[in-house]
Structures are given as structure tokens and as C-alpha cells.
């Protein structure tokens, strides 16, 4: 699955080192334990220099001095053994498969009770080892996120390298982002900017209207809360190709958090923020001011929407004059709107007027 043998060997060696630490603790007469950052909201801090979420200084210890702790370490050892073997055989598996695979392990206490438990353990191993799950050859279920635009790439696959142009060599559905975007090499492009789009319906509208072709835009479908692979590719497009990144979402608090995860990282993946987040990304989604200006069709804010907006007023990711003004306006009007609400002004309004005007205001289009 991976063509980078050196990377695979390094990941396998790090796993074996972790298992060796448990053995050494046994040999020294110590109770085996594993220390990792406390994974709670109270231990997430916003690094203002890097503009991303990171773990704080508080740590927790997984110790075998209790039955519960011993079971957790047992599951960690079995998982480490499985991952090391997987790397040795150059195989891969999904997070879902790991959960089911554990049912075949000979020690019943090592088996996972649900997938959230196995997912959490893989994240623990990432944090402790400093190795990403992609380098363990672990992948989530397919997110289905796609890319469409003037970009030519070379992708490493288990069937050899493939060169793909993300307009000329794909259908209208676009190029599907692989689980590990670091297997992609950028060969050539005519891209002027990246437009990350929350919904599939809006992504399809842009492609059908030829927005990617007319404006040399690379349209990236986020598919709701974006997968790690999508955020990693977006960051690489910015850092390596120096492309401006914009995020086009619905006008509600949950969509603002989608923008926040692309730009500043998420609490869940705080240990990977510098690998996944693009702090330079800019919001181009539906603003409360757009709801008023364009008289868009709306839905009323629910109680959970209001609570989320009030929370965002205290969120370090939204501490700017723009966000304070927009969130307070939204609370005042009590409404939210979807991207597709722009169709109330015609199917071409979003590509002929809304996006070009916003992109010109940002200085991305001349």
C-alpha cells in the first residue's frame, strides 16, 4: 500500500519501541504505564503564534495498577503488534476493520467493545509515538471528498504511479482525495486559488456552471466536517503551491466551525494541527450580512444554534472584528441560511455574481 519503505520502517520501529518500553518496565519491576496529554477540552490551548489548537501541558497516565488500566494497556499491546505486522506485510486496513479484527484476538480482554474505543486508542498511539495513523497504514472509511480544477498530479498507488489531471482525466465527479494525500506529487497547475465547498450540491453547481474552468479555481468538496485527508491536501496546496485558500460554507454556527477546522484545526486532532490546519484560509461562506443584503430564504435559529453562536463569541478562533460583528448580527436577526439559498436569485447567481464579487473584494480576483 505504501511505496515509501523508509517511512514504513520508521513507523514500525517506533511501534516496537513503544512495546519495548512496556517490557523494560516489567524487567525493572515497575508497573507498566503510558503517559500522554490529557485529551479533554480543558487541556486544549490556542497557540496564537501558530494560529492552531494544540494540547496543553497536562498529562494523564495509563497504568496497569488497576484492572481497567491493565485492560487498556493490553489492548494497546495487541494493537501495536497488529500494526507492526501490517507494516511488515505492506498491508493496510480501516479503522472499522481494526474494531472487527480484534474479535479474532486470542485474549478476550484485548478485544474492543465498540469502534469509538479502538479509534481512540489509535489516536493515543499517534500522540505517544509521534507517528500519524496514515503512516501506520490505517485509514478511515472513505470520505468521498473530491477535487476538480486545473491541477496535474502524480499519485503513488499499490498498482504503481499514476499521473492525473484533475479536470481533463476525470469525470464530472472529480478526482477523489486518497486517504494519505502525502502520496500525491504536484506536477503542474494553472490554479489561481482553492475554493473549499461545504456541500455536495453547491460543489456540483459550481462544476456544472464551469466555475473551476472560468476562474482557474481548484474546487475542493469538504463533505461537511472535512476529513483529515481533505484538510491535509488543502494545507499542502497552500504551503507548497502558494495558493490562496477560501472556505465556502452555509451561514450557521456549525458551518463556521467547519471553517475553523480548516483554518485553525480541531480539538479532536490538536496533536496534528501543524500538519492539517491552514491558518491563512479565508472565509467566503454565507454571512449573516448576506442574509440581510440579499433577503435570502432562511430558517430560524434553534436553541442549540444560539448556544453555539454564543460559545463562538468566546472561541479564540473567532476573536476578530469581522466574526464578532457577524455573530452578533446573526443573534440579532435570529436566522440562518444555506449555500443553496443563493439559488433564490437564480441558478447562476452564485457563479456569476456572489463568488466573483467576494473574491474581488478579497483581492484574489482582479
UniProtKB/TrEMBL annotation:
**What quaternary structure, including any partners, is listed in this protein's UniProt entry?**
Homodimer. Heterotetramer of two Top6A and two Top6B chains.
Q: Supply the name of the protein.
A: Type 2 DNA topoisomerase 6 subunit A
**Organism, as annotated:** Halarchaeum acidiphilum MH1-52-1
Q: Which PROSITE patterns match?
A: TOPO_IIB
The active site lies at 100
- InterPro entries attached here? Spo11/TopoVI_A, Spo11/TopoVI_A_N, Spo11/TopoVI_A_sf, Topo_VI_alpha, TopoVI_A, TOPRIM_Topo6A/Spo11, WH-like_DNA-bd_sf
The keyword ATP-binding is assigned to this record: yes
Functional summary from the UniProt entry: Relaxes both positive and negative superturns and exhibits a strong decatenase activity.
> Is Ligase given among the entry's keywords?
no
Indicate the segments annotated as coiled coil, or none if absent.
none
Amino acid at each position: 500500500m505504501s511505496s515509501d519503505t523508509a517511512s514504513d520502517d520508521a513507523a514500525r520501529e517506533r511501534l516496537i519501541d513503544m512495546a519495548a518500553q512496556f517490557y523494560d518496565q516489567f524487567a525493572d519491576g515497575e508497573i507498566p504505564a503510558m503517559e500522554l496529554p490529557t485529551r479533554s477540552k480543558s487541556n486544549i490551548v490556542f497557540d496564537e503564534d501558530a494560529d492552531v489548537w494544540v494540547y496543553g501541558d497536562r498529562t494523564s497516565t495509563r497504568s496497569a495498577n488497576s484492572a481497567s488500566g491493565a485492560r487498556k494497556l493490553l489492548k494497546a499491546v495487541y494493537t501495536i503488534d497488529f500494526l507492526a505486522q501490517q507494516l511488515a506485510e505492506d498491508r493496510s486496513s480501516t479503522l472499522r476493520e481494526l474494531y472487527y479484527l480484534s474479535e479474532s484476538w486470542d485474549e478476550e480482554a484485548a478485544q474492543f467493545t465498540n469502534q469509538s474505543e479502538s479509534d481512540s486508542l489509535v489516536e493515543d498511539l499517534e500522540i505517544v509515538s509521534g507517528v500519524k495513523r496514515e503512516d501506520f497504514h490505517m485509514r478511515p472509511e472513505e470520505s468521498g471528498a473530491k477535487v476538480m480544477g486545473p491541477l496535474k498530479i502524480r499519485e503513488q498507488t499499490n498498482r504503481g504511479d499514476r499521473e492525473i489531471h484533475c479536470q481533463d482525466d476525470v469525470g464530472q465527479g472529480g478526482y477523489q482525495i486518497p486517504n494519505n494525500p502525502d502520496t500525491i506529487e504536484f506536477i503542474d497547475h494553472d490554479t489561481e486559488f482553492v475554493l473549499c465547498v461545504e456541500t455536495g450540491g453547491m460543489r456540483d453547481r459550481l462544476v456544472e456552471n464551469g466555475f473551476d474552468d472560468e476562474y482557474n479555481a481548484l474546487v475542493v468538496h469538504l463533505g461537511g466536517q472535512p476529513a483529515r485527508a481533505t484538510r491535509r491536501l488543502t494545507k499542502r496546496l497552500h504551503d507548497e503551491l502558494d495558493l490562496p485558500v477560501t472556505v465556502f460554507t452555509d451561514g450557521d454556527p456549525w458551518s463556521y466551525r467547519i471553517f475553523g477546522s480548516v483554518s485553525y484545526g480541531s480539538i479532536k486532532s490538536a496533536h496534528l494541527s501543524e500538519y492539517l490546519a491552514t491558518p491563512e484560509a479565508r472565509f467566503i461562506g454565507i454571512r449573516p450580512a448576506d442574509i440581510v443584503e440579499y433577503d435570502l430564504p432562511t430558517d430560524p435559529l434553534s436553541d442549540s444554534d444560539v448556544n453555539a453562536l454564543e460559545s463562538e463569541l468566546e472561541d479564540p478562533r473567532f476573536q476578530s472584528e469581522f466574526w464578532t460583528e457577524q455573530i452578533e448580527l446573526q443573534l440579532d436577526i435570529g436566522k440562518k441560511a444555506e449555500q443553496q439559498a443563493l439559488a433564490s436569485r437564480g441558478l447562476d447567481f452564485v457563479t456569476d455574481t456572489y463568488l466573483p464579487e467576494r473574491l474581488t473584494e478579497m483581492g484574489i480576483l482582479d
